[in-house]
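Recap quiz, item 2
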Amino acid sequence: TYSPPDKAAVLEMRQQHFGSNLKLSYTDPVMLLRGWRHHMFDDWGRPYLDAYNNVPHVGHAHPRIQAVVADQLLRMNSNTRYLHPTQAEFAEKLLSKMPPHLSVCYFVNSGSEANELALRLARAATGGRGIVTPNHGYHGNTTGAIDISAYKFNAKGGIGRPDHVALVDLPDDYRGPHRRDNPQAGGLYAAQVQVAIKALQKRGHTLAGFIAETFPSVGGQIIPPPGYLSEVYKRIRAAGGVCIADEVQTGLGRLGQHYFAFEALGASPDMVVLGKPIGNGHPLGVVVTTPQIAEAFAQGPEFFSTFGGSTLSCRVGKTVLDIVDDEGLAQNAANMGARLMAGLKALMNRHEAIGDVRGMGLFVGVELVTDRRGRTPATGIAAYVMNRMREHRILMGREGPDDNILKIRPPLTIDAEGIDMILHVLDNVLAETGAQMPPR
Ligand code: PMP
């Protein structure tokens, strides 16, 4: 007879052997042992709909990824000091998706490492250290990445804002100071960059550049208003800085019509940072930049990463990009995202608690409020909904400074049944919160 791993024992060992700031999701944590496409299976083989994880971009346990990993590990796995065709093949495939001025790749092992390297490149290109970045951003767990991640340095017990970093408001056109009804909102948020640059200069820092998640995710699944990013980039460049787009959450077709979020905003970065989905579960990060920035960086010491750009990593990365194309996953993200957004907007007519629905493709946020007029964050309702969805075996996330925004970010394989199940269950769960629309 099958007996699953003892969940209570696993939990206890975890509590004994790991730091307590390694967080678990859900009041009743879930133990997941297998996955397939956008489904996961727990200790008893019960299915869960994965509406949250962006790492399994082309789906959990994809047979082509399994085959390529097995094949490469049977041959060998080595580093960038030896020639291998797969490194150039991966770079060429990735660069075919980028604007032509972005033509140099660096391969590393995580989004954090990629951002860390992007900071070094920016310093090499400008001679400066000063960074402007929106509030509530997240760029990784390394020392340098934490320095530019307000979500971490401003958290309880955090290190506080480093002197070489200046913050601007999140371009949140639902809750922030400039809102959707103001056609100037994008320009007004962008103008804050000028104040930040001045503040850095006053503190004696030369500007290195600007970094942002192109669509801020940790900040609450924000879609910046039109004109915002291109205006920011213009101001940063005029002050001598470079512009870094962290596309870890938004890149590679998730948005449907746009392969990257900077395209959707009509902005052109000097560096693009990629992570999580590009390895589909294999650790992989990439920085793509211009030949000029790469040349400035090459004036310094050799760049080397033992595992970054390994034969295995490059084959995995190339295969992920191939699968997105071969299976039409960006088109699926566009179709399923549209279905989800339409369904969520319909739910707004039934549930007072939904203050805002926003998104593009399969990058979607549902902002919950206790009253629509005051837009008071409904943090408690969001926690309740997330846990109840899990009890109905749908995995979702919660984001934003007030943790009141439901985050829906499934693998790109999700289908109409999956979307309709999310909508149906969310409708029922929201009804339980008692915050329905008054009958009309
Ligand atoms: N940038 C963004 C936008 C992220 O969401 C993350 C991870 N959540 C990172 C960087 C860091 O990536 P990693 O955890 O792979 O180091």
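The longest strand covers residues 207-213.
The mean pLDDT is 97.
End of item.
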